[in-house]
Design goal:
5-stranded parallel β-sheet, Rossmann fold, Gyrase A, domain 2, Arginine--tRNA ligase, single chain, arginine-tRNA ligase activity, globular, 4-stranded antiparallel β-sheet, 596 residues, alpha/beta
């Protein structure tokens, strides 16, 4: 397919040779997209070229532009803005590109490169259900995996389930003391929500005991350590690590409830995993590595028996690796998990961890420790950090039971999609099953798009009402444009119009050219999104495509076109746009309805 950037580079070098008798290296030629307010699609930056042409940047740009227009059938016009030469390609060029895209299978996607990567996301604790923060995490990790795959990588999607530790012991103690045998079946609660309920109860009882101890004369710090219920949880953690049969059986039972709940939530989310790792299976390998580090002098034991590593020479601090009672910390299991993954998938070139930005220091430490332990692949590990999600109602706290539950939020989104869709009459002719499926697609599309259109590093405010608007930069707007195009394609098929680009066509409507300029960028947008680990690049790109097509649709009456070649082109052009929107939404983990 015609690569306009490469063509323009070659033409620039040819112009320079003809005009200034200079054989420039390609590295001197800088091409960038033309700014929206100027005519053209590609811009040659002429500021660095003045020293070779001995002219001002403006004079250099003008001379090159005139040469290109006179000597290349590709260029139909140009304009100069200071030292920037904006190139206008001939309509014939865009028609040829449209023809190439129409006949190119999987346009935008790269062939497999043989490179393997691993993307970790979700990674919940088993003491509570998934919440709004997990939605951003899952949607971000899954989308990055989709984008990396489209860029030619083989991707392994994994999660580490934090199924052991003091957090689950808190839920277990509370259930044992106050649960009276309650189960998901007897309560009608999803398993993860039932276990989360007892995590909240634990925190309430713990706070009550702390208050009593403070009233009895203890300091706050003493009360927090001496509260009977926290001691019970700590004792339970020790029993678990010693594989006490009764403790282990309770742990398996309650975690089993949670896994069933998680499974249902992931299904509703539309995300999946290739392999699951469990902290209970990786922490022991981490402990072995920590003890090896002590033997080799990389880590040391304190008098109380705790194990630490000194990272002050690396600009960090001392880091705890094993508690004084020998139990593991998060760092211990993360060391074991990373090593185990490379043993399971020896060909992976990179591990990508999708975890909130509050853990940036943790991962900096983890990667340094792995490198000190002799694992060269540690330098290729990457923390895909993202900002927290806030709601207009304020910050979420899982211990206090004030989190926004993922299941509830998704159900609310489906309900909002239903009311908005019914109100606008977008389900005329749908049966009940089709209508419910559309509500699901719109609700999830709205949620995923809203959470992904923001740069991952930014903290964001999620506004459910705003996200599901059918106007503006939203998922439903893009989905509606796609459904509208699909209706056009169905009508064309009924009329027997074959989508194609005829050689007899020589001109385009301005709005058609604007859309094609965006479409041709699709492969480079995927590359950029993969390089930056940023689905927001795809999200904002597909919005621009949908918006530009919508402008074309409002200005050009497709089926009133009397020229059959122009009509066939517009159907082909519409199909290209629909395919680009569908692929882009799929890269975001969202669906593009064909009917609304």
């Amino acid at each position: 397919m015609l690569n306009l950037t490469e063509e323009l580079k070659a033409l620039s070098l040819k112009a320079f040779k003809a005009l200034f008798d200079q054989d420039l290296d390609e590295s001197h030629i800088q091409i960038q997209p033309t700014r929206k307010e100027f005519e053209g699609s590609h811009t040659l930056v002429c500021f660095p070229l003045g020293r070779f042409s001995k002219l001002s940047p403006e004079q250099t740009a003008k001379a090159i532009g005139e040469f290109m227009q006179e000597n290349s059938a590709l260029v139909s016009g140009f304009n100069v803005v200071k030292g920037f030469l904006n190139i206008v390609f001939a309509d014939k060029v865009w028609l040829q590109i449209a023809s190439d895209i129409l006949t190119t299978p999987n346009f935008g996607y790269k062939a497999e490169t043989g490179r393997e990567v691993m993307v970790e996301y979700s990674s919940p604790n088993t003491n509570k259900p998934l919440h709004l923060g997990h939605l951003r995490n899952n949607f971000l990790g899954y989308s990055v995996a989709q984008i990396l795959k489209a860029n030619g990588n083989k991707v392994h999607k994994v999660q580490i389930i934090n199924d052991r530790g003091i957090h689950i012991c808190k839920s277990m103690v509370a259930w044992q003391k106050f649960g009276e045998g309650e189960t998901p079946d007897s309560s009608g609660l999803k398993g993860d929500k039932l276990v989360g309920k007892y995590y909240v109860i634990f925190d309430q009882k713990y706070k009550g005991q702390i208050a009593e101890l403070i009233e009895a004369g203890k300091t706050k710090e003493e009360a927090e350590k001496e509260a009977p219920i926290i001691k019970e949880a700590q004792d339970m953690l020790l029993k678990w690590e010693l594989k006490d049969p009764e403790t282990y059986a309770l742990w398996e039972k309650m975690n089993g409830w949670v896994y069933k709940g998680f499974e249902n939530t992931y299904k509703t989310m539309g995300v999946d995993f290739d392999k699951l790792y469990y902290e209970s299976q990786t922490f022991s390998l981490g402990k072995e590595e920590v003890l090896r580090a002590v033997e080799e002098g990389l880590a040391y034991k304190k008098e109380d028996g705790s194990v630490w590593i000194d990272l002050t020479e690396d600009g960090l601090d001392e880091k705890l690796l094993l508690r004084k009672d020998g139990t593991s910390v998060y760092m211990t299991q993360d060391i074991g998990t990373a090593i185990l993954r490379y043993r399971d998938f020896p060909k992976i070139e990179q591990q990508i961890y999708t975890v909130g930005n509050e853990q940036e220091y943790h991962f900096k430490v983890l990667f340094i420790i792995l490198a000190k332990l002799g694992y060269k692949w540690a330098e290729n590990c990457y923390h895909l950090s993202y900002g927290m999600v806030d709601l207009p109602t304020g910050k979420m706290k899982s211990r206090e039971g004030t989190v926004v539950d993922a299941d509830d939020l998704m159900e609310d989104m489906f309900a909002t999609a239903k009311s908005r869709t019914d109100e606008l009459g977008k389900i005329d002719g749908f049966n009940e099953a089709e209508a419910q499926e559309l509500y699901r697609q719109l609700g999830l599309g709205a949620l995923k798009y809203y959470l992904l259109k923001v740069d991952p590093v930014k903290r964001m405010m999620f506004n459910p009402e705003e996200s599901i608007d059918f106007q503006g930069n939203t998922g439903p707007f893009i989905q509606y444009v796609h459904a509208r195009i699909c209706a056009i394609l169905r009508k064309a098929e009924q009329l027997g119009i074959e989508p194609k680009v005829s050689d007899t066509l020589s001109s385009l409507e301005p709005t058609e050219g604007n859309v094609l300029q965006l479409i041709v960028d699709f492969p480079s947008k995927i590359e950029e999104a993969a390089r930056e680990y940023a689905p927001s690049i795809i999200a904002n790109y597909v919005y621009e495509v949908a918006k530009a097509y919508n402008k074309f649709y409002s200005e050009v009456s497709i089926f009133n076109e009397s020229d059959q070649d122009a009509l066939a082109f517009r159907i082909g052009f519409s199909r290209i746009v629909a395919e680009t929107i569908e692929k882009s939404m799929n890269l975001l983990g969202a669906e593009a309805p064909t009917k609304m």
